[in-house]
C-alpha cells in the first residue's frame, strides 16, 4: 500500500470517528489540539486504524502519535 | 447505698435541694454533699461518689449535681450533672460522665431506642425494609434488602431481628461511662454509649449511639436525628439531619447532610447533599452540594457534585431502584434514571435518560455522546484513578473499635470483577461477530457501544483477565521456589477444596464470596443453625476467612478454561508461555496507566496556570504548584513498579529455567 492510500484511509477514519469534514484533516493536524480528540476518541481512532488497515498496533507507541502525519508514518511501518 | 440522714437532708435543703421523698434517694458513702446544689430528686435516685473533678471544655470542674431535676436515675461515680433545663429522667448514668447544659434527657419505659425502626431502603416504594438494630452489619442488612426471593429466609431473618429488638427494649436509658453530653437540646429515648461525645445537638429522638473507649462516637452541633442508630467511631455533626437512618462505624456525616430511610456502613462520608432510601455500602462518599442519592445500593462509590438520580416515573409511585456495583463513580451533574444496574468500577458522566443495565461490562466509562448514552467497556482498566482507589481504601479504613461489624473485601481485581471481565469479553466478541461493518454502533444494556470499540475493549478485558489469572499462578510458582523439581511446583499449584461452581461470585454488602457460600449460609439461617445476628456475624467471618482458598479455586478453574489446561497440569514450556503472556498483558495495561498519570501534567492540565506569564514562566509556575512527572509520587511509584515488574519477570524466567 503506498503512502497516498494510507493517507487517504487515515483521513477517512479520522473524519468518521471525530465527525468532521475530511478537508479539515491536514497532515500537520494535532489530534488533540486541532481536531478535538479526547482520550475516549483516541481509543476509537486507534481501533478505527486497526480495522481500516487490518493491523494490531502497539498500544504504547500508538499513544505517542500526535498528528495525522505521525499516524501515517506509524501505520506505514505495519502495512509495509 | 443509704438514704440521707436528717442532718444531711437539712444540709441539702440549705443548699437548695429538694426531694419528692428523701427515703427514695440514696447516697454513696463518698458522696460529697456540698456538691449537690439546687438538685431536685424525684422517684428513686441513687447518687455515687462525687469527690473528683471531670474535664469539661478544657476546665476541671467538680463532680456533683447542680441546678438539675433528676428523676428515677442511677447516677454512677464521679458524674457531673449541671444546668439541665427540665429533667434527667429514667436514665442509668455511668461513671465519669458529664451532662451539662442540656434541655432534657428523658427515656420512656419500654423504649427500644431506635431498634426496630423500619427503614425503607433501595426501593422507596417498600419491599426492601431493614429494621434497625445495634448489631446491624452491611452483610446482615444486605441479606434483608437484596435476598428477598426466599420467604423462608425472610422469616428467619425477621426472627433474628425480632430477638435483637426485644433485647434492645429497656425500662430506662443509659449514658455510658465517661460520655459527655454538653450544650444540647432535647434528648429523648437515646442510649448513649461509653465515651460518646454528644455536643450541641438540636434534637435527638429515639436512637442509639454506640461508642467505645477505642473509638468514641461524636454527635455534634445542630444535629437533628429521629429514629436512628449511630455506630462506634462515627461522627455526625454540622447540622446533619437524620430520619430513620443507620450510620456505621467510622462514618462521617457533616455539613448539613440530610439522610432519610438510609443505611451507611463503615467509612461512608456524607456532606452537604441528600440521601433517601439508599443502601450505602462501605466507603460510599458524597462530599458536595446538590447531590441527591436516592433508591439505590452502592459500595466504594464516589458521587461527584450535583449527582442526581430519579426513581419516580409518576405512574405507580417511586418504585424504581438502582444498583451501582462497587467502585462506581458519578461525575459532576450526572443524572441517572432508575432502573439502573451498573457494573463494578464504572464511571458515569453526563445525563442518562435510558435505563442502563450493564453489570457484565465492568471498568466502563458510561458517557453522553450526541445525546445518547454510550459506553466504553474496560476503559477504567487503563485509569490511574482505579489504581489509586484500590490503594487508598485499605488505608482509609478508619475503624478503631475492637469489633468491626462490616466485613470488607478491598481488592479491585478479584474473582467477582475478573469473572465479569470474562463475561464482558464474551459479550463484546459476540457483538463484534454479529454487527455488520456498516453499522457505527450497537446497543447493549440500554447504551450504545461504538462498533469500532467492540474488539478493542474485549482486548482490554482479555489483558485484565490474563494479568490477574497468570499473576496469581505466578505468585504460587514464586512461593514454591524452594522446590527442586517441576513435579513439586505442580503440587503447589493444585486446587484446594474446589467449589461446586467457582465462577459465580457475589458482593454481599462489601464482602465478596462465592454464591454457593451465600446459599449455604442462607440454608443454615433457614434451618436455624444460624439463629442470631451474632451467629450470623460469626459465620460471615468464617466465610471471609475462606476468601483466599475460594479465590484460588476460581483461579484454577478460570485458568483452565482460558488456557485449556489447569495450573497443576502445566508443563514447564507452558509455564514460560504463561509468563510471556502475563508480561505482555501487564506491560500493556501498566504502560497505559503510566501514560494516563502523565496526562495530568500535559498541556491541557496547565490551562489555568501562568496567568499573564510567558510560556517558560507558565511551565515554572505549573511545576511549582503541581510538580512534574519526575517529582510526582504516584507517577514515580508507577515507574518504579514498571521496573519491579520487569525484575520480577526476570527472576521468574530464571526460576522456570531451573526445572
CA(first)-CA(last) distance of chain A: 7 Å
If you average the pLDDT of chain A, what whole number results? 92
Question: In the CATH classification, which architecture of chain A applies?
Answer: Orthogonal Bundle
**Residue share in β-strands of chain A:** under 5%
Order of helices and strands of chain A: HHHH
List low-pLDDT spans of chain B.
none
| Straight-line distance between termini of chain B | 81 Å
Oligomer: heterodimer
Major sheet summary line of chain B? 27 strands, mixed
**Computed CA radius of gyration of chain A, to the nearest angstrom:** 11 Å
Q: What is the 3D shape of chain A?
A: globular
- Helix coverage percent of residues of chain A? 55-70%
Sheet of most strands of chain A: none
Number of helices of chain A: 4
Report the count of strand segments of chain B. Answer: 43
Query: What is the class of the domain at 1-106 in chain B in the CATH system?
Result: Mainly Beta
SSE topology:
The complex is a heterodimer of chains A (80) and B (659).
Chain A: H1 3-18, H2 39-53, H3 59-62, H4 68-79
Chain B: H1 6-14, E1 18-19, E2 25-27, E3 36-42, E4 45-47, E5 53-56, E6 59-62, E7 64-71, E8 74-75, E9 80-84, E10 88-89, E11 91-93, E12 98-106, E13 118-120, E14 129-131, H2 138-146, H3 151-168, E15 173-175, E16 180-192, E17 197-199, E18 203-209, E19 218-219, E20 224-230, E21 235-236, E22 241-247, E23 252-254, E24 258-264, E25 269-271, E26 274-280, E27 285-286, E28 292-298, E29 302-303, E30 308-310, E31 322-324, E32 329-330, E33 335-337, E34 340-342, E35 347-348, E36 351-352, E37 357-358, E38 365-369, E39 372-376, H4 384-395, H5 415-434, E40 441-444, E41 447-450, H6 451-479, H7 486-492, E42 505-508, E43 511-514, H8 515-527, H9 533-545, H10 547-563, H11 572-599, H12 615-626, H13 633-657
Parallel strand pairs in B: 1-3, 2-4, 3-7, 4-8, 7-9, 7-10, 8-11, 9-12, 10-12, 11-15, 12-16, 16-17, 16-18, 17-19, 18-20, 19-21, 20-22, 21-23, 22-24, 23-25, 24-26, 25-27, 26-28, 27-29, 28-31, 29-32, 30-33, 31-34, 32-35, 33-36, 34-37, 35-38
Antiparallel strand pairs in B: 5-6, 13-14, 38-39, 40-41, 42-43
Amino acid at each position: 500500500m503506498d503512502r497516498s492510500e494510507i493517507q487517504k484511509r487515515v483521513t477517512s477514519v479520522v473524519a468518521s470517528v471525530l465527525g468532521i469534514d475530511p478537508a479539515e484533516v491536514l497532515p500537520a493536524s494535532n489530534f488533540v489540539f486541532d481536531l478535538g480528540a479526547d482520550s475516549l476518541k483516541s481509543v476509537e481512532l486507534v481501533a478505527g486504524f486497526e480495522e481500516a488497515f487490518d493491523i494490531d498496533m502497539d498500544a504504547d507507541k500508538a499513544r505517542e502519535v500526535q498528528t495525522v502525519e505521525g499516524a501515517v508514518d506509524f501505520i506505514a511501518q505495519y502495512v509495509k | 447505698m443509704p438514704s440521707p440522714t436528717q442532718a444531711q437532708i437539712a444540709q441539702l435543703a440549705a443548699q437548695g435541694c429538694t426531694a419528692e421523698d428523701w427515703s427514695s434517694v440514696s447516697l454513696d458513702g463518698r458522696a460529697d454533699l456540698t456538691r449537690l446544689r439546687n438538685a431536685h430528686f424525684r422517684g428513686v435516685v441513687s447518687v455515687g461518689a462525687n469527690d473528683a473533678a471531670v474535664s469539661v471544655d478544657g476546665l476541671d470542674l467538680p463532680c456533683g449535681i447542680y441546678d438539675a431535676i433528676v428523676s428515677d436515675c442511677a447516677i454512677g461515680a464521679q458524674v457531673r450533672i449541671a444546668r439541665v433545663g427540665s429533667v434527667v429522667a429514667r436514665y442509668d448514668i455511668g461513671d465519669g460522665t458529664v451532662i451539662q447544659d442540656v434541655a432534657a434527657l428523658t427515656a420512656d419505659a419500654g423504649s427500644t431506642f431506635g431498634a426496630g425502626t423500619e427503614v425503607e431502603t433501595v426501593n422507596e416504594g417498600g419491599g426492601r425494609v431493614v429494621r434497625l438494630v445495634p448489631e446491624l452489619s452491611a452483610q446482615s442488612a444486605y441479606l434483608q434488602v437484596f435476598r428477598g426471593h426466599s420467604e423462608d429466609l425472610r422469616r428467619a431473618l425477621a426472627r433474628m431481628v425480632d430477638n435483637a429488638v426485644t433485647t434492645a427494649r429497656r425500662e430506662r436509658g443509659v449514658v455510658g461511662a465517661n460520655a459527655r453530653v454538653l450544650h444540647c437540646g432535647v434528648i429523648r429515648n437515646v442510649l448513649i454509649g461509653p465515651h460518646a461525645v454528644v455536643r450541641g445537638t438540636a434534637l435527638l429522638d429515639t436512637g442509639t449511639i454506640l461508642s467505645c473507649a477505642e473509638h468514641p462516637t461524636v454527635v455534634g452541633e445542630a444535629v437533628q436525628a429521629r429514629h436512628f442508630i449511630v455506630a462506634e467511631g462515627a461522627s455526625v455533626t454540622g447540622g446533619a439531619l437524620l430520619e430513620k437512618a443507620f450510620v456505621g462505624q467510622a462514618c462521617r456525616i457533616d455539613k448539613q447532610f440530610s439522610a432519610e430511610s438510609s443505611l451507611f456502613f463503615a467509612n461512608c462520608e456524607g456532606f452537604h447533599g441528600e440521601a433517601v432510601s439508599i443502601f450505602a455500602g462501605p466507603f460510599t462518599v458524597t462530599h458536595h452540594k446538590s447531590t441527591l442519592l436516592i433508591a439505590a445500593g452502592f459500595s466504594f462509590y464516589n458521587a461527584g457534585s450535583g449527582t442526581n438520580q430519579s426513581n419516580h416515573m409518576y405512574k405507580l409511585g417511586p418504585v424504581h431502584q438502582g444498583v451501582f456495583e462497587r467502585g462506581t463513580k458519578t461525575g459532576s451533574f450526572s443524572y441517572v434514571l432508575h432502573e439502573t444496574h451498573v457494573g463494578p468500577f464504572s464511571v458515569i458522566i453526563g445525563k442518562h435518560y435510558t435505563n442502563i443495565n450493564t453489570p457484565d461490562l465492568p471498568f466502563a466509562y458510561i458517557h453522553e455522546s450526541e445525546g445518547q448514552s454510550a459506553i466504553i467497556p474496560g476503559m477504567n482498566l487503563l485509569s490511574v484513578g482505579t489504581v489509586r482507589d484500590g490503594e487508598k481504601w485499605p488505608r482509609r479504613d478508619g475503624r478503631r473499635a475492637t469489633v468491626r461489624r462490616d466485613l470488607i473485601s478491598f481488592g479491585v481485581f478479584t474473582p467477582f470483577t475478573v469473572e465479569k471481565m470474562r463475561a464482558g469479553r464474551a459479550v463484546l466478541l459476540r457483538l463484534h461477530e454479529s454487527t455488520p461493518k456498516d453499522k457505527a454502533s450497537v446497543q447493549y444494556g440500554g447504551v450504545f457501544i461504538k462498533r469500532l470499540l467492540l474488539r478493542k475493549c474485549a482486548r482490554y478485558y482479555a489483558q485484565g483477565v490474563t494479568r490477574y489469572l497468570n499473576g496469581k499462578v505466578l505468585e504460587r510458582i514464586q512461593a514454591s521456589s524452594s522446590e527442586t523439581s517441576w513435579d513439586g511446583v505442580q503440587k503447589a499449584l493444585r486446587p484446594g477444596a474446589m467449589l461446586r461452581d467457582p465462577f459465580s461470585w457475589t458482593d454481599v454488602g462489601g464482602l465478596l464470596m462465592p454464591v454457593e457460600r451465600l446459599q449455604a449460609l442462607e440454608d443454615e439461617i433457614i434451618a436455624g443453625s444460624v439463629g442470631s445476628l451474632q451467629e450470623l456475624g460469626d459465620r460471615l467471618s468464617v466465610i471471609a476467612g475462606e476468601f483466599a482458598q475460594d479465590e484460588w479455586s476460581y483461579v484454577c478453574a478460570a485458568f483452565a478454561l482460558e488456557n485449556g489446561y489447569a495450573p497443576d497440569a502445566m508443563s514447564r514450556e507452558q509455564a514460560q508461555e504463561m509468563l510471556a503472556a502475563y508480561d505482555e498483558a501487564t506491560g500493556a495495561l501498566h504502560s497505559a496507566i503510566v501514560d494516563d498519570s502523565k496526562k495530568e501534567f500535559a498541556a491541557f492540565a496547565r490551562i489555568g496556570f501562568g496567568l499573564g506569564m510567558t510560556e517558560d514562566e507558565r511551565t515554572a509556575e505549573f511545576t511549582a504548584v503541581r510538580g512534574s512527572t519526575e517529582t510526582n509520587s504516584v507517577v514515580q511509584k508507577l515507574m518504579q513498579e514498571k521496573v519491579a515488574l520487569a525484575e520480577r519477570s526476570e527472576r521468574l524466567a530464571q526460576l522456570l529455567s531451573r526445572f
